[in-house]
Each structure stands twice: as structure tokens, then as C-alpha cells.
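Hey, weird one. I pasted the nitric oxide dioxygenase sequence into the form twice and got a warning about non-standard characters only the second time. First submission, copied straight from the form history:
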Amino acid sequence: MGLEDRDALAVLRDAVIRPDAEELIGRFYTCWFAIDPPVRDLFPPDMTDQRKVFRQVLDWVLGEFIAQRAEEPVAFLAQLGRDHRRYGVTQEHYETMAHALYATLNSDLEEQWTDEVDDAARQAINFIAGVMSGAAQAEPGRGWWEGTVLEHHRVSRDLAVVRLQLDSPLDYHPGQYVQVEVPQCPRRWRYLSPSIPAQPDGRIEFHVRAVSGGMVSNAVVAETRPGDVWRLSSPHGAMQVNRDDGDILMVAGSTGLAPLRAILMDLSRYGDNPRVHLFFGARYPCELYDLRTLWEIAANNPWLSVTPVAEYSTDPPWAADYPDPQPPRGLHVRQTGLLPDVVTRYGGWGDRQILISGSPGMITATTAALVAKGAPPERIQHDPTTG
Ligand SMILES: Cc1cc2nc3c(=O)[nH]c(=O)nc-3n(C[C@H](O)[C@H](O)[C@H](O)COP(=O)(O)OP(=O)(O)OC[C@H]3O[C@@H](n4cnc5c(N)ncnc54)[C@H](O)[C@@H]3O)c2cc1C
């Protein structure tokens, strides 16, 4: 029976949804690292998030098997396998992973481990490892790119613009994001959105904001130096504009500007575009770090209007230590307030394609404010709010 035996599969799934399931997953990793020690080096020192994510994946995949659905798990696992190439995962790692998972479940479920459960476990684990490794092997493209930092500009206290030269061009759509590993924080991959469209010469640029207590973002802002080598994954994400689907509202909070800026630069290749209104917000006026670029795009492209927004109307004393972002006249007058309030002061924007990019809190609040004003939720796009 194997994958058709819903009762046997339910025994396996119960093991990964019970309250102490993360301990079970912890034992799986311990077992895997014991039988294949080099695998430990592929993971970050703190495995808490990893354990959570792997438990969720097992829960979802086993749930799909129980519902006798295979299409979505195949698509999901294949993508996961392709993504894992960037970690340097090999065929042998999948074999030892399958072995460790089987051994851990077997010893955990000893009383319930019937022949049927054994059959279901073997087939489910082989399915997961087989689809992931098969998709990784079948993928002709590269698993990761290396980029050498050319420039690092501290544009404000908590903000850096980083320009890199990739070892070969990375093909992505404007608005997509990649995962990035920096040398200061090995194996701690974080999502970043390129702030320029894909370049045939392999140049790429990121805007990074140091979040409070954030390990990687603070290292990038404070410690990145020219010559550092970053590792980048293949691109993800579907945020985009349809040039034939009416006017556009963009709302960017801080470095959430990056993907929208890439889209604006891409649009500026065309003479004729839908009208785009961009609200670019930050806490202080001095943190509106990229107004000059926006001013340059708007000066040459009459379809773009930009409204700067700052939560506070004056700058803090430390602003004097950083470049003044104020561009020549030409943009709308800076507004004071929080982005959701300022944007909805102008109306509901119900007739627009709406793209929102920024911190999870800003995305949630702006979406809620716009929907409350009548914007159709299906016209609102944003990236996932968790990494
Ligand atoms: C699709 C996507 C694209 C992204 N693009 C960019 C980008 O172009 N530029 C950029 O600077 N960041 C971007 N991020 C955020 C980035 O991936 C990291 O989450 C962020 O830099 C924090 O990482 P960290 O290691 O410093 O913090 P962690 O050590 O992972 O977390 C420390 C603390 O910071 C909080 N935190 C995490 N992310 C944020 C956030 N965005 N805002 C406020 N608090 C947060 C966490 O909840 C936690 O409490 C993007 C995220 C996603 C999901």
C-alpha cells in the first residue's frame, strides 16, 4: 500500500504534529550529523528555525499524501531541491538524510511501527528525497552565484548600498529577490531584493537596512568591505506590473524601495507607460536615502510621480554624519506621517495595480489601510513577509 495507506501515513504525520515534534526533528538532525558529519557544516550554528521549517514541510507533505494529492508536493519538493543546490547539497547527502529520517521515525514510533507504517515511511521518505535530488540533478542552471563587493556606501546610520560584481550574470525579473550569504555570517541566508534590473555584465546592487538585533543586516551595514565575496541563490518572487492593466500605486518603506526601483528602472526603457505614483517612506527625512535616483527617473519620465514621506518632520543630530539625500526640486512636497495614513489620505486607490514593499509590519498595515479604503485585495501585491 505505501503512499496509498492513509492510516499508516497518519501515524507518521501524528509524529510531526504532536507538541514535542520539534524534539523529534532535533533527534533526526543529530542522527543525520552523526552518520554524515560533513553535513553539519551546511547548516547554521543555531538550528531552531531549521527544525521549525523542516517540521512544517514534513507536516504539509504528509498531509498532502494523506489527501492523496501528489501534484503540489512534487512541484514544491522539486523547487526545494533546486534551491538546495546553493548550499552544496549532493546526492549522497540525500541518501544519508533519507536514512537518518527513517531511523529516527522508526525508533520514535517503535510501538506503532507495523509493516504498513514501515512501508509508508520508506515510500514517503524516498519520494521526498527522490524528488528533491532528481530535480536538483535535472536542473541545468547554476545552484549559486558568487559576487565580489565593489562598493559599500553607508548612506545613513542604519542603511547601506552595496554594489557587487557577479562571477556570471544572474537572470532575474525586476521585482524578484534572491537569497544571500555574506562572509561575516556563514550559512545564515537572508532574502534581499536587487535594486537594479538584471545586468548583462553581472553587476548587481542591494540596499540593506540594519534591523534592531538583526545579525546579518547589521553585519552588512557595519562590516561589509570591498573584496568580500557573497553567495547568491537563483531568483524568486512574482511581484511585477502589467503595463496593460492600468495605473499603478507603489508604496515603499525604507529599503523596501529596492524591488520597486528595479521595476521603475525597467519601465523607463519604454516611452509609454501607465501612470505610476510612488510613496517612499522612512522614519526621518535623512533616511530617504535614494530620493536623488527617484528624482532623476521622474525628471525624465513624466509617467512617474514620487511623494517622499517621513514619520518625523525633523532630522536627528546624527543625520549630520551622513549624506543629505535631498534632491533638487521636482518631487512632490514631503509628507509627514506613517505610510498607511499618508497613502490613504489621497484616496482608496481602488482603480490601481498596487505594489507594497517594506517591513512585514508596514506591509500588513498598508494593505489593511488600503483595503479599508476600498482597494480590492486581489489588486495588491507584495513579497512574502517572512524569510
Ligand atoms: C522577500 C524578501 C525580500 C527582502 N529584501 C530585503 C532588502 O532588499 N533589503 C533589506 O534590508 N532587507 C530585505 N529583507 C529582509 C531581510 O531578508 C532580513 O530579514 C533582514 O535583513 C533581517 O535579517 P537579520 O539577520 O539582520 O535579522 P534576524 O537576526 O533574522 O532577526 C532579528 C530580528 O529582526 C526582526 N526582523 C527581521 N526582518 C525584519 C524586517 N524586515 N524589519 C523589521 N524587523 C525585522 C526579526 O523579527 C527579529 O526579531 C527581505 C525579506 C524578504 C522576505
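That's the output from the first submission. The warning seems to come from a hidden character in my clipboard, not from the data itself. The chain has a mean pLDDT of 95.
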